[in-house]
Structure formats: structure tokens, C-alpha cells
Amino acid sequence: MADFLLIHGSCHGAWCWRDTIREITALGHTARAIDLPGRADDARPVCDMTLALSAEAIVAALGREPVHLVGHSAGGFPISAAAELAPERIARLYYLCAYAPRDGVSMIDMRREQASQPLLSAVRKSPDGLRYAADPAQSIPLFYHDVAPETARWATDLLCAEPIKPQATPIALGPAYASVPRCYIQCTDDRTIPPEYQTRMAATFAPKDRYHMPTSHSPFLSDPRGLAALLTQIAEAN
């Protein structure tokens, strides 16, 4: 039995994994999700939010046995930083249409490498410049275009502002991170991280560790059963 820890991306929270957790559990495995620091109910100052703090929150949530650690979108950075801190406690890293980092590069640096920038018109930066939010009017076309309308509206209502500092911080990765097995799941109908950029990131993974889903940026809501089946297939085969 595999134990999955699911890490959300920008402007999301543990809530987004609701349906996927149910489907993974139905397949006989365990799954749980956490909120990263900086969600709406986090009373700490936004200036205190860091990539290191997110990594530490993930490590604190790891179990006694090695966990299968899934990061969606921006969640690719904190799961990688967590692997650098506690590689022996992670069975595998799963990058779900996620930014797969390189040492010394920030997530914002990687976003700027993309040939197209779908999010630029949808991002609303706070007056203090410390966080950003997604324009609700553009959230469904960008994130949830293949999600059932009622579920897409539910998700849009739960989106929150995202601290910028963790995403502007270059990550430090070394032998500890490199020792952890990893795989990449591309979403080929993604309108947030361009599929061609996902292909570029996935090219750094071994061919046997590259997978595809024909979904939007949010397979955890558009195809939770298919996502659960793929995650458990990978876990059971390795």
C-alpha cells in the first residue's frame, strides 16, 4: 500500500485534492493533502513566507514510511526542496504538470522561459507587491475548462492570494534531491503551463518516468479517477 502526500499549486489549497483523495483511497492506498504556508487562514505576515518554510511544512507532514510526494504546478518547487531536506522519507517525487526545478533557478525564472505566458493577463498583484491573485473571471478558462461547471465554480470561489517570495527564490538542489526517484506527468490540454514547456521539463526525466494525461491544468478535478489510477500505477510498478 502506498501513502500519497498531495501538494497544491499557486492560489490553491489542500481542498483541491478532495476528489483525488477519494479515488486513491478507493484503490486501496492512503492519501492526504496539506495547505502550504500563506493560505488565507495563515495569520503569519506574508513577508515571512519562504520556499524553505514550505519545504519544512512538507517534511513535517511526512509519515514514518517513505511517502509518494505529488506536487502540482508551483508545488514542484517545495516538494523538491523537501526532498533535499529529507530524501530518505520520500519514495518518489511526482511532478503533475509542475515546474520541475533546476539548481539555482527560481520558479519565476522558469515561468519567464516559456515561449507564451498564459497567466500574465490573469494575475493581479497586491498593492504591496508581496502576493498575487488570479482573476476569477479568467480562472475557469485557464485552470478548469474541462471541469464540471459546478465543481469549477466551487474551485474558483476557493482560490486565494499567493505569496510571491517563495516563487522568486532560487532553489538549492544537490545530491540529496538527486537521490530521490522522480517522474513527470504532462497535461496535454493545459492552458496554464504550456504543454511544450512541460515537454521541455519532462525531457530531463528518464523516458520510463514520463507520463501523459489529456486534461487541463487541473486533472485532480477534471479526471480524479484517471489521475488516481495513474498515480497508483506508477507507485505499484516501482
Automatic annotation (TrEMBL):
Picking any one GO molecular function of the record gives: hydrolase activity
Establish whether keyword Hydrolase is in the entry: yes
Looking up InterPro entries in the UniProt record yields:
AB_hydrolase_1 (IPR000073), AB_hydrolase_fold (IPR029058), Sec-Metab_Biosynth_Hydrolase (IPR052897)
UniProt keyword annotations, A-Z: Hydrolase
The chain positions of domain AB hydrolase-1 read: 4-229
| PANTHER family named in the record | AB HYDROLASE-1 DOMAIN-CONTAINING PROTEIN-RELATED (PTHR37017), ESTERASE_LIPASE_THIOESTERASE DOMAIN-CONTAINING PROTEIN (PTHR37017:SF11)
Could you identify this protein by its name?
Answer: Alpha/beta fold hydrolase
Organism (species):
Pseudooceanicola spongiae
Q: What is the lineage of its organism?
A: Bacteria, Pseudomonadati, Pseudomonadota, Alphaproteobacteria, Rhodobacterales
